[in-house]
């Protein structure tokens, strides 16, 4: 019973939360689920190579066999430290971002930044001779490119806004963004070169998004439309009629529900106006039932 309550609380928190909350929950949920599965596979001495199908590969031929990885990689993390810093950055920057843009654009930029980071990673690994001879071994995981996009966009929206960093003190957003970009550029020759290239791609996506947003153009609109259609499709699947004998029950759509509630509220308001003008005794039995419910 207690386990069900915890599950219900988590589901309710997810449904009622903001887009930022949902992005954090999804990242944490994927991290926990993938690592639990990995533990199970290892305990039974089974193959764990299936994780590679979720990571974005650098080799073009490999990527064409798993194109979905351009999306899945940005929700996949290797270690607790890896996800901790990405979630922390997403939370801090996401809260400030939402002061200047909508929740739809937040998830849109998260995905756009991830896509831009993945493409930049593949282009860089295959272009530079240092990596091109061994591109088969390079893969990309993590939300760093997505959080970099959100960070850079937020810095453009509020360049002079100060934030406090541990061990450093107060720093303006523009200098934080510039420092992160420089660190990524300098790290492109190191052990995490592919990840740093992805950061640059995410930063470019964040810059272009913010500049276009200031002109009234949302370059993430197409992503929001795709997500909207997927959600509607899933809702339609969930609202299919349930057959029972020769009868079925159709789940009420959001549109029908909102319309019905509006009509009910208008009727209640009419009854209250009637009480105000003519008194309670002027109500007929049907109106009394509507006012107090059908349990009277």
- How much helix is in the residues? 55-70%
Please indicate the percent range of residues in DSSP E strands (runs of 2 or more).
5-15%
Specify the biggest β-sheet. Answer: 2 strands, antiparallel
Mean pLDDT: 87
Tally the helices: what do you get?
Answer: 13
Order of helices and strands: HHEHHHHHEHEEHHHEEHH
Numbering strands along the chain, what is their spatial order in the largest sheet? Answer: 1-2
Structural class: mainly alpha
Distance separating the two termini:
34 Å
Low-pLDDT runs:
245-250
Task: Count the E strands.
Answer: 6
Given the C-alpha coordinates, what overall shape results? elongated
Radius of gyration: 26 Å
Describe this entry's structure for a reader.
The protein is mostly helical and 296 residues long. Helices cover 67% and strands 6% of the residues. It is elongated. About 2% of the residues have low confidence.
């Amino acid at each position: 019973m207690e386990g069900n309550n915890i599950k219900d609380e988590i589901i309710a928190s997810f449904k009622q939360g903001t887009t930022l909350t949902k992005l954090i929950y999804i990242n944490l949920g994927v991290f926990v689920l993938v690592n639990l599965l990995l533990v199970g596979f290892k305990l039974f001495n089974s193959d764990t190579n299936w994780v590679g199908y979720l990571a974005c590969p650098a080799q073009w031929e490999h990527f064409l066999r798993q194109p979905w990885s351009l999306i899945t990689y940005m929700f996949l993390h290797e270690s607790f430290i890896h996800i901790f810093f990405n979630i922390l950055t997403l939370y801090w920057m996401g809260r400030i971002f939402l002061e200047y843009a909508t929740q739809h654009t937040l998830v849109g930029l998260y995905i756009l930044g991830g896509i831009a980071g993945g493409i930049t990673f593949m282009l860089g690994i295959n272009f530079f001779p240092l990596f091109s001879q061994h591109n088969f071994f390079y893969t990309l995981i993590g939300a760093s490119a997505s959080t970099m996009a959100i960070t850079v966009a937020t810095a453009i929206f509020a360049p002079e806004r100060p934030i406090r960093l541990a061990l450093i003190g107060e720093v303006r957003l523009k200098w934080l963004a510039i420092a992160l970009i420089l660190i990524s550029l300098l790290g492109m020759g190191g052990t995490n070169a592919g990840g740093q290239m992805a950061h640059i791609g995410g930063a470019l996506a964040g810059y272009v998004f913010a500049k276009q947003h200031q002109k009234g153009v949302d370059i993430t609109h197409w992503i929001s439309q795709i997500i909207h259609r997927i959600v509607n499709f899933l809702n339609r699947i969930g609202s299919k009629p349930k057959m029972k004998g020769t009868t079925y029950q159709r789940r009420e759509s959001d549109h029908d529900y909102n319309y019905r509630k509006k009509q009910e509220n208008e009727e209640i308001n009419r009854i209250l106006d009637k009480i105000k003008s003519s008194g309670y005794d002027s109500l007929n039995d049907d109106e009394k039932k509507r006012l107090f419910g059908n349990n009277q």
